[in-house]
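S.,

Sequence below, as promised.
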Amino acid sequence: MGNLGSSLPEEPRRTARDLDGIQGGGAADARYQKAAPGSVRPLTAVLTLWGLALLAGALATLVVLPAARHLRSFQDGEQVSATLHTKGSCMLGGCRVEFEADGRTVLADLPVGSSGGKASAGTPMTVRYHADDAQVAVREADLGGGGAAVLAAMLGGAALLFLLTSVAVPVHAHRRRRAAAAPDEA
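The prediction came back faster than expected:
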């Protein structure tokens, strides 16, 4: 139905969805606005950051801290001189040492979280082992937790950083929306 006194056609009524992307549309809500190409919506960013924080925290708590605790449990073990037998990724448990225990030669694994992976085979070192189980030994330098303690601290710091960033993202998005909605003062 058109205006009776005008020959111009009537404009269709616009809804909030029709005003998306129109400067000064007023009724367009952030939920309906599409993200700019190459950008991420704030909710997606927050959920991703929470997931990363949860993953880093879980890895530190469930894997790395127990490894550091295991390394510390050797503080009261038997001390002996040893030689690095098999070089590998000591942090992942790929190194082995050779030493004498109770008159026999023992080839023992260095547990997960050990440091010293850059040492070459044949390098002398001091290790500790439990008298009832000489198949696992810990380097004297790793009795404080070794590389596992450092990794746990790094993962904990990363989790905290992800959580703080997940707070900063929506605050920044809200400020940006508020600045875009404010009339220009010239």
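Residues 23-32 have pLDDT under 50 and may be disordered.

Coffee later?
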